[in-house]
Amino acid sequence: MEIVRDLNSDQLQFYDSQGYLVVESFASPDEIDAMRKRMEQLLDEFDCSTSSVFSSVNQRQLTDDYFFQSAENISFFFEEKAFQEDGNLKQAKELSINKVGHALHEIDPVFKSFSSSKKVSGLLLSLGYKKPIVIQSMYIFKQPGIGGEVVPHQDNSFLYTEPTTCTGLWLALEDANTTNGCLWAIPGSHKNGLVRRFLRGDNGVYFDQLSPAYEHKDFMPIEVRAGSLVVIHGDLIHQSFENHSPKSRHAYSLHVVDTEGCVWAPDNWIRRKVQPEPLYES
After folding, report:
1. 74 vs 105: CA distance, rounded Å
2. What CA–CA distance (Å, rounded) separates 186 from 1?
3. Tens of pLDDT along 2-19?
4. Domains and CATH numbers, the chain
5. Cα distance between residue 270 and residue 71, in whole Å
6. Which residue from 83, 126, 258, 259 has the least number of CB within 10 angstroms?
């Protein structure tokens, strides 16, 4: 397919200076509806008893295995506040899931269609990607009332290449604002480089450094309408707060890395048996 660079010079200049970019109306109402309906189907088919197994002996191993295997599966992860003390869900499973990941873009045809579309490739070509792959995808719910906080972080910490190439593509499937847990970022923080890495070792995953302390006043909310795409530089400090509102904040998130002249770090949490196919080669 023919790929056309989608971003103009003003958009690229803003992205280079701020570390993020909002592209309004990136996804059509039909695309949003298709992804939301497909996720409803996946949730309806999901047997939540399979992911809430508890063992006093090897719970950490069970949890780690489920997480690691999600790199090549469609896996379901609950909100921390979804369970009662007896281990049962407080409410229906569709209101208890935190996210679904991390291979929707490969396995499910609806999410694959959007993730490998010409407009996604055109955006990445504009950013200078030579041979990009989508390394992970997530459907994020930010449930009403219990949607958890995502602490300040950089995407390159989790998906590290040498040199660093990770870019986050965060698509709002519902309006996102300060009430229901929109993204917040420190504009220009990508220029300060990578702070720490999230590593996978023999005993699980861990950060190699403590997180720095950040001032709330330095963060700016990124409020967007449904269909808007937020492009996030891999070194940008960003976060989201808990959702205490009665309104959810669904989003579909992709993370992309380049495979042209770059090396995937062997101590990343994702260890693929088969490398995904590139979206294109330029």
Report:
1. 9
2. 37
3. 677 889 999 999 999 999
4. 9-45+59-82+89-264 (2.60.120.620)
5. 6
6. 83
